[in-house]
Amino acid sequence: MRIRIVDAFTDRPFSGNPAGVLLLDAGPFPDDSWLQRVAAEVNLSETAFAHPLPAGGDADWALRWFTPTTEVDMCGHATLATAHVLRSAGRASGTVRFAARAGILGATTHDDGSITLDFPTSSLTRMEIPEGIAAALGAEPVSAYDTSEDLGDLLVEFADERTVRALAPDFGALTAHSRRGVIATAVAEDPAGGYDFVSRGFFPAVGITEDPVTGSAHTALAPFWAAALGRADLTGLQVSARTGFVRTALRGERTLLTGRAVTVVDGELFSSPEA
């Protein structure tokens, strides 16, 4: 069975966010335990599994995502990686529709090689800054927002970019503050630097300490910064060690996430669901 590792939200190998991608045969997904074992073996933040659906339906492919420890409801970078593999393999062109836990998700490939994801916009509910979150992150936020209705994340704003870059989280303590993870963000220090805001994403509750580039988090970051900056189209830089750019376009109940991807590993998985 062919398996790829794709770096998403980047045009350079060994940056962005790596995802495993397996294109399966038509029919139902293999047993969940096999999918989880493969994801644990790949040991990246997410591994995507997709199989083709019959023509004429609402979606073209069924898509699921697993971290090394659990299945997740939404994942941007592994969806981008899957669309990239489908295009590279000649299995799809133009817009691909994925049936996933989060509903129908679109991925459109452009002539320049970039890919735009069409995801649901996350809700944001302002809340009191949770007690203990400053100690868990290593700095005092200026505001906090709940996205639990959609993502299950806590979004926390900091005063400046330097503070976000310098965060040193206590990952054990962070698990008490959200169902999925904590998104830290601040406005860009230099408006001429090619990005409008920065972020980092910490998801120890689902087996990921720091995620290199979190596409799904930008469905909350996009409406937050669109309201703060007064513009619907923005660029985010996730300032993990690998870094990656996500172009966001807020379109009401949908958020468009645009980025690039590059395949870094193309090999054979010597295990089958029947083994």
UniProtKB/TrEMBL annotation:
<comment type="similarity">
    <text>Belongs to the PhzF family.</text>
</comment>
<dbReference type="Pfam" id="PF02567">
    <property type="entry name" value="PhzC-PhzF"/>
</dbReference>
<protein>
    <submittedName>
        <fullName>PhzF family phenazine biosynthesis protein</fullName>
    </submittedName>
</protein>
<dbReference type="InterPro" id="IPR003719">
    <property type="entry name" value="Phenazine_PhzF-like"/>
</dbReference>
<keyword id="KW-0413">Isomerase</keyword>
